[in-house]
Fold each of these.
Amino acid sequence: MSGKHSGFEALPQNGLLLEDVDVVTAADPVCQPVADLRSVTPKHEATGTAWASLGAGDGAGGGSVVLTSYPEGGAKAWMSELRAAVSTCKDFVASSERGWKDRGTLKVSPTDGIGDESLGFSTVSAEDPGKGQAMTIVRTDGSLAVYLTSSEGEPIPAALMKTQHERLREARK
């Protein structure tokens, strides 16, 4: 999960992705699968996690990618729950034990059929409609790759996500 592709450079991170206080709860239980993407206590617990920051070569923002693997059926179940949550939960409100609160609107975005299945959505901040995040989740067998960028940055190119999917598929052989 390192190297350059499509104008982005992946820089593997060794530090903790989430701390113990990063327990995130959605105000509406139907939205919890989305909140779980940012929580240290998701319903579907990963058996392995690696993450990298993604820097755009032209300095126009960046993002991150988190790769997680799950026991049999876990990744597929979470994708199903995420798809249902994103289609049902339009007004997203979540809070963390760390003390932050996030309020916004979810909007589905296209994913060009990446991976075994994929889901894209963005959140638009209720406090500042010019700010938000874009997220694409790509399932490869029992793994999920979660790509995150801010609304101000460049979107992660589909070609980069397809290449990562192919690398994960090859690694499982």
Amino acid sequence: MALVECGTRALLGAAFGPDTTGELGYARRLLDHLDASMVLLADAYYDAFDFLQTVTDTGASFLLRSTRKRRPAVRRPLPDGSYLTAVCAGKYKAGRGYGRLEVRIVEAWMTVTLGDDTRRTELWRLMTSLLDAERYPAHEHGLLPTRQRQRLKAHVRKRNSKYTFTAGKHPRTAQPYTLHFEMITQDGFDDANRG
């Protein structure tokens, strides 16, 4: 597991060991490198309450893709189409009760179209501690690339990949692609949360 600065790609920290520890375990070891000037970007699986609370305790903000199994309730819709909700701890702690962390959710349909016209659309649910929709409007801080990029295939393959369910679903050569981002607003929440 590595913590890398986005702009310079400088390595801030790394942790490694046996597979039995898991990604979250190694990620927790890197949180001491965070401070209030940073926004942690992470993919799905890092949306566990304890992990997010620890990130928040460092002073850093976070923006990550939430897992599909998380179905947040809309507590308060915001003007940019995002909404506020809370992530709660699963266990009661004496003297502290149930932990609760307020977060903001941006939901969007992401469509990737490859050069060979292969198209894939899926729901993305982004979770952030940047709660102010006026200061951080979702449509201005999305994940849209400024130009077309090449989708590259890895040069090294593992023999025993844990991602066998995606075998044969990726192109064999690099291709240009376009990314279409359609934010789901308050009127579309019910449709988006069905699947």
